[in-house]
Amino acid sequence: MTNLTQNKKSLSFEVFPPKKDGEFEKAFEVLDALGQLKPDYISVTYGAGGSRAGKTVEIASYIQNTLHIDAVAHMTCVGSKREQLLDVYRELKAHNVNHVLALRGDRPKDMSDEQYAARDFEHASDMMAFLKENTDLHLSGACYPEKHYECFSMESDLSNLKKKQDAGAEYFISQLFLDNDFYYTFLERAERKGITIPICAGIMPITSVKQIGTSITLSGSSVPKAMADILATYGDNPDEMRKAGVDYAIRQIRDLHENGVQHIHLYSMNRPKTTAEIVSGIRS
Ligand code: FAD
Fold this sequence. Notes:
Layout: H1 2-5, E1 10-15, H2 24-35, E2 41-44, H3 53-66, E3 70-76, H4 82-94, E4 99-103, H5 113-117, H6 124-134, E5 138-143, H7 154-166, E6 169-176, H8 180-192, E7 199-203, H9 210-219, H10 225-234, H11 238-258, E8 263-267, H12 272-283
Parallel strand pairs: 1-2, 1-8, 2-3, 3-4, 4-5, 5-6, 6-7, 7-8
This protein binds flavin-adenine dinucleotide.
């Protein structure tokens, strides 16, 4: 995390734990390949509801103790009580994992109104304040260059973001975005709100049309004309689409670097080949 704290260029990845227990060997191979790219840290997603928290811990432990790369475990308050969060904390500490991305989470489809309402913390900032007081974790939070989908205005979303900084977040990781202009405007407005901690720009390579219906729709991010043109031209050709998506991500990151953005967080989608091509493109 040194590059992040010293505000030197940093590059990090996000991975997700395998969906099935039998898939861990493959996941470790993916991590080995990502580790070769020497990221500053790798973050590991967490299923809101917490039932698979152990998987996040297992993957984070491999990153921390086998690859010797800083692991950031995501943690959500949806579906979790104080004691459960502390259990996860103790598990993380037992595996030398000291960094947590503290999130609210979204309501899983199979969660009832009662279960959703039963969480101990309403917002990520409430959970952060609790973790700050009761643990020695290093905390980070999520931010949204195009505003969080529930919030009525960017101004209000930024005020809520400031609450996360005040609650102890040491840096933010952004939602994916495909149009850098949104990010530059967001950075200016965040600065005016008093956000002073580093912000990592979340970049997801769009390598298939399917992603528009899943990741992009869920994130609420806009699809600019340049990306719509790529989808229209290469959408039916998986190989060409993948290449065009990699190229788009490289151009996006180069533009961010040229405009003074230091920290890039790549949503790796557990795809080392695509991630390696992007890393090679931005480091050359
Ligand atoms: P919050 O910070 O609680 O914000 C949620 C909404 O409440 C926003 O509209 C905000 O403006 C508002 N708000 C916040 N604080 C207050 C307050 N004090 N008063 C009033 N309103 C407030 N989800 C997962 O389930 N697992 C993951 O691993 C995961 N990883 C993610 C990683 C990143 C980098 C990002 C950007 C998102 C991730 N998510 C993950 C999705 C995330 O859980 C959702 O976007 C969720 O809807 C919001 O989470 P949050 O932590 O930003 O919530």
